[in-house]
Amino acid sequence: KVRAAVFASGTGSNFQAMMETENLACEITLLVCDKPGASVLEKAKRFNVPTIVFDPNMYSTKEEYELEVLHVLKEAKIDWIFLAGYMRIVGPTLLQAYDGKMMNIHPSLLPQFPGKDAIGQAFRAGVETTGVTVHYIDEGIDTGPIIDQVEIKVHKNDTKESLQKRIQEVEHQLYPAVINDVLSKGVKS
Ligand code: GAR
What is the pLDDT of residues 107-148, one digit of tens each? Predict the structure, then answer.
């Protein structure tokens, strides 16, 4: 079975959704976290997934911590990386090692609203439709080739919180489904 690592910095609801997907086409054998104390770490413990936690502030360059992470990924024989709320740009060290084998989920219809607080950005912009995107990683901020997108209507009485809740429910379905598609077909168009 394909061995995957999830990179996450926050709550880990997408990580949890993957772990709870019965027919996931890969085994998640490692969680990489750049925020000591993030609640995703408790979730990993609950699912018995080993973690590596690092604090980027302890390193002088991105290359330094990415080389360390890469070393662990190789030791753990990781084939694929899934970013799920990892709020950090991936550098050339990891990109070159996992070219075409790194995906991310983002809570907007990219290329609209890249970067931080995409849901807040969409809410404040007053768009009628936003959504969720799963895409491959490249060197930019949420710019890699899009694999799949789902549109979500913004309701008139939505708050940012109610919109976020609907977006995350879609994420929890979409990400495992895209992972299964990509891993079974090679590439999805
Ligand atoms: C998710 O909504 C994900 O799309 C977003 O962070 C959240 C993490 O939630 N990612 C980005 O904004 C990436 N630019 P989670 O920790 O509960 O999975």
Answer: 999 999 999 999 999 999 999 999 999 999 999 999 999 999
Q: pLDDT tens digits, residue range 62-79?
A: 999 999 999 999 999 999
pTM for this model (two decimals)? 0.96
Q: How far is the CA of 84 from the centre of ligand 1 (A)?
A: 6
Pocket test for ligand 1, best of 6, 7, 14 (most atoms within 8 A of CB): 14
Does 71 participate in catalysis according to the annotation? no
Ligand 1 atom showing the smallest separation from residue 141 Cα: 14
Residue 9 CB contacts under 8 Å (≥ 6 apart), including other chains: 33, 34, 35, 38, 40, 85, 86, 87, 88
